Amino acid sequence: MAADFHVFLSAVTSEFGLARDVLANDLQARDLQLRVQRSFRQEPGADTLLRLLHDYIRDCGAVVCVIGARSGACPSPAEAATFAHLLPPRITEASYAQWEFFFARAYRRRLSLYIAAADYRPDKGAPTGDNFPELQNAFVAHIEALGRTTRRSPTATSCAPKC
After folding, report:
1. CB proximity list for 100: less than 8 A, separation 6 or greater
2. Rounded to two decimals, what is the model's pTM?
3. Could you tell me which residues are beta bridge partners of residue 6?
4. Rounded to an integer, what distance in angstroms lies between the CA atom of residue 163 and that of residue 32?
5. HSE-up of residue 105 (Cα within 13 Å, Cβ side)
6. pLDDT value of residue 153
7. Architecture, CATH, for domain 2-162
8. What pLDDT is stored for residue 36 in this prediction?
9. Residues 6 or more apart in contact with residue 33 via CB below 8 angstroms
10. What DSSP line would sit under 94-139, residue for residue?
């Protein structure tokens, strides 16, 4: 019966790729249906990556976000325009990983947030793609301003047993 419950797992690969895989394996071992970057595929009607993320999150029951210091890449303004109305006031741009959080909020999905402790060591010493630290700092400040319950984790993998 658990296989009917769909979970979307969000994390920036260069920072949490290994931790995301540990969490994914743990959730799949619990017989949950999981969407994680390694299992993305072409879907009908999803002509952009942001549309694909939107549709996956719209159709899931829960979203787990592992959040750190890196933003990851951002969609183009044209790609994001369709979804701009889902951003909160004063947020005008978001990375793909940040959009995953905003989609979960917009569709009122069960949302679990794990924020890495300041001394967390990323998988890769440097980002492997685009990274916008100011955008990520504003995103984390936004989450903190919401008063969202988050779990600070000294290692991102330590949240696996709690999921």
Report:
1. 8, 10, 53, 57, 63, 65
2. 0.86
3. 33
4. 11
5. 16
6. 57
7. 3-Layer(aba) Sandwich (3.40)
8. 81
9. 3, 4, 5, 6, 7
10. --HHHHHHHHHHHTT-EEEEEEE-TTPPPSSSS-SS---HHHHHHH
The full DSSP string for the chain is -GGG-EEEEE--HHHHHHHHHHHHHHHHHTT-EEE-GGG----TT--SHHHHHHHHHHT-SEEEEEE-S-------HHHHHTTGGGSPTT-----HHHHHHHHHHHTT-EEEEEEE-TTPPPSSSS-SS---HHHHHHHHHHHHHHT---EEESSGGGGGGG-
Taking the CB of residue 12, how many other CB atoms lie within 10 A of it? 29
| Cβ-count burial 77-97 (b if 16+ within 10 Å, e if not) | eebbeebeebbeeeeebbbbb
| pLDDT tier for residue 126 given thresholds of 50, 70 and 90 | confident
Residues 63, 8 contacting (CB under 8 angstroms): yes
Question: What whole-number distance in Å separates Cα of residue 156 and Cα of residue 69?
Answer: 12
Q: Strand 62-67's sheet: what is its strand order?
A: 33-35, 6-10, 62-67, 110-116, 151-153
